[in-house]
Give the backbone structure.
Amino acid sequence: MSHILAGAPLPGPGSSLDIDPPSVVVAVGAHPDDIEFHCGATLARWSARGAVVHLVICTDGSKGTWDPDADTAEVAQLRTAEATDAAAALGATGEVVLLGAVDGELARAVPDLHDPLVATLRRLMPDVVVGHDPWRRYRLHPDHRAAGFLTVDACVAARDPHFVPHLGTAHRPEWLLLFEADEPDHVEVAGEEAMAVKVTALLAHRSQWRSTMLIDDPDQDGGQERFATGVLDAAREVGGAVGQGFGESFRRLGL
């Protein structure tokens, strides 16, 4: 199982399944590969059914390397290109919005990013917003917490007309789905085709093969296959918890 997805709380047997496929989706991730890890199959399935999927990436991903001598500006540029390739692999026909905070320093940038994200939500008018659960216990990475709170706060501001009225007409999404959920209560069921697309989109993040994905380990063979198997195993565990095949879990909040 992928170590990124291993150990996540599983949904209970009473969890809801599959909201109606949305027309417009905005997925918000802290780093260039977070969206693909946690909701890639869901976005691929919705894209295949005609949804316009937009990706918002909060940080530049510049610290996403184990090489102490790496040029972080070059890493950021590479990860931007990878994010674009991954979005195309998902079938996402919307925008890839880069908020541009420095990797690892998102919490400091949140006050400056709130209004741009609110403006983005009001402009793109999603039916569904997908993002990190900011209330996940024992979370180590500060950017994931910060991205979750940024997303939740921006959704509330975007829906209410007296919040930042100069940023455009208020828009209320129907659902906020939080991945990495501490107490998941909703599953989007994924078929084999959507899971294959998810793996392809993740592998587009070539810079992360050695670090996040543990693929370029010189002491082990078959890294890509092992990684793909881990992603499938994690989704199979989620789906199995609700009597399905593959799935991705969320906390579902109405807006």
